[in-house]
Fold this sequence. Notes:
By secondary structure, the protein is mostly beta strands. The chain has no helices and 14 strands.
Amino acid sequence: MTTTKSLFGFRPSRKRAGNVNNSATNEYPIASAYAANIFTGDLVRINAGNVEVITTTTEVAQGVFMGCRYVANGEQRWSKYWPSGTSATDAYAMIADDSRAVFEVQADASVTAGDLYGSQNFAVTLGSGSTFTGMSGHGVQAAGRTSTIAMVRSLDSVNEPGNDVADAFERAYLKMNVRIVQHTDNFHDATVTAPTSGADPVF
């Protein structure tokens, strides 16, 4: 039911043209001792050649964190999240980095049918994840809807019971399908900061 706010981050759903989700990821390095948790479903960026969790809604995302591997104290480890400050070698994040990927994500407040089907872009809520489950606390910031550039574009609602956008109770924290607008592949400039509105030539 979407009458409860329970942000879970971004879950790969399908490709923009309707292709199935094949869970494809690519590996990117994480700097040893990087001092922030990164959870499965978090939006991440590349900064100075390494993966970092985004910290503001104006940054450009490389994709969505789907777990990591690293060597700590001589032991190979696999994890659903990167523990802040981990001293490690061979540390790599698995990132769902396709710029045309569609993700399921929950809104942090009510949205309506008028917000869907590409009519609005949205900022994101950068909520804290769980070190118990390893899952993200990111979500769509309903109050951040805009017709100008923002992190994600709404596509439609997730087709599941209890998630009807036409029902006032069920749309209170609607699960949406979105595409990342502020994706690094959507800009000519290689930067961690989003270009100004209208500077997106390949979306």
